[in-house]
Amino acid sequence: MTGPQALTADDLAALATRRSGREVEVVHLDDDAYADALRSAGLPDPVAHLLATFGAATRGGYLSAITPVVADLTGRAPTGLADLLDGQKALPLGEQ
Length: 96
Known about the structure:
Low-confidence stretches: none
Structural class: mainly alpha
Number of strands: 0
Radius of gyration: 16 Å
Distance between the termini: 29 Å
Mean pLDDT: 88
Order of helices and strands: HHHHH
Shape: globular
């Protein structure tokens, strides 16, 4: 199930930059380095491994398909992430 666009890491960084007013940079890591970083941040090994597999899935093109599921199920066009976030109050970075 997807929104109306397939977003890349660079697209997400640009959106985060626009929303936060601070430069957000994509840091490319191989899957093992990413999993190691996640484990170092306290995630359990199975969760770190699962999240790291998204890199392989992205590189393989498995996450690039846009589906009509939202419109088929709801009768409404999906809302893009930028539009969704634009409707939300922005929090400064570091504030929760």
